Amino acid sequence: MSTPTKLEYIWLDGYKPTQSLRSKTKVLFKDFGGTLEECPMWSFDGSSTEQAEGGSSDCLLKPVFICKDPGRKNAYLVMTEVLNADGTPHESNGRATIDDDDNDFWFGFEQEYAIIDPDTNRPIGFPKGGYPAPQGQYYCSVGAQNAIGREFIEEHLDACLEAGLKVEGINAEVMCGQWEFQGFAESATQAGDEMWVARYLLERIGEKYGWSIEYHCKPVAGDWNGSGMHANFSNTTLRTAGDKAVYDKICEAFGTPEAIKRHIDAYGADNHLRLTGLHETQSIDKFSYGISDRGASIRIPVATVESGYKGWLEDRRPNSSADPYKVAAEIVKTVKGACAAL
Questions:
Q1: Are residues 18 and 135 in the same domain?
Q2: All residues at 6 or more sequence positions from 65 whose CB lies less than 8 Å from its CB, including other chains
Q3: Same domain, 289 and 331
Q4: pLDDT by residue (tens digit) across 136-185?
Q5: Which end of the chain, C or N, has fewer beta carbons within 10 A?
Q6: What's the CATH code of the domain at 63?
Q7: 198 plus 131 within the same structural domain
Q8: Is the separation of the CB atoms in 170 and 152 below 8 Å?
Q9: Alpha carbon distance 322, 324 (integer Å)
Q10: Which domain holds residue 180?
Q11: Which of 36, 70, 92 finishes a domain?
């Protein structure tokens, strides 16, 4: 008799302005080799997730990425995209908007987030009704008074690596109770797939601790850093240009009024609360780019310049709640347009 296999189908709901993760388990009572091709299409009740009307509620789940489930026996995590009943992409399906069929784009996302203690409804380390010491001591810190929640963070990192996700690093962030992990893939769609699965694992592990994950870009008002999801990206042109003028033209393409609107619309709700010109951000109503400038909209890394303008760029505007699929889709569109005009 075959060993039953648990497949956790994960998808994004239709809530606006910020989508949430949903998932359910399919058990297969047959031999399973762990490949995407073996994962059947499935369906769900879209009327319960803001994705369909009750009278015609079936939405389809198309498997697009699979990895081991590090928290269950004989189990896999299956990232899916949502389709309408006729097989066309659902309007909530940001993955389907990415135009990178040749996988020329590489993406690295830096996911910041706050860990919330339900007893205080504030980030861990914030005393009930008060504030911890001002920020400054928490970034990349060590010590019980600074690096609050490390055991949880380490468990999440181990789970991601065991699952086979390319998480390249973690660190404590500037605000107390705020952390970051970095993911990378040599494909725009896979970068989004892996980021969503890593987010799923973060939230699921948080259940055990009784903590929730806050992706809102300004979890605490006042003189505290917001949370971003900086997008590092390159394509063949950026990786091989060897020419400052090429980089300038691509950066300038991000600064047109049409491009600014498209990108800001896709970069997460309430971003005006984070993009103030303070706390390592450019103001939401301004656009700039510069070498090693963390207060710019687009940062040209020093490593790119030192390599003779062969490398990547960082868009610092996406916020922590943004959909990495939609962020990647807009960046691919803008860079492709700029490259076509070179």
A1: no
A2: 36, 78, 79, 190, 193, 194, 197
A3: yes
A4: 999 999 999 999 999 999 999 999 999 999 999 999 999 999 999 999 99
A5: N
A6: 3.10.20.70
A7: yes
A8: no
A9: 6
A10: 106-340
A11: 92
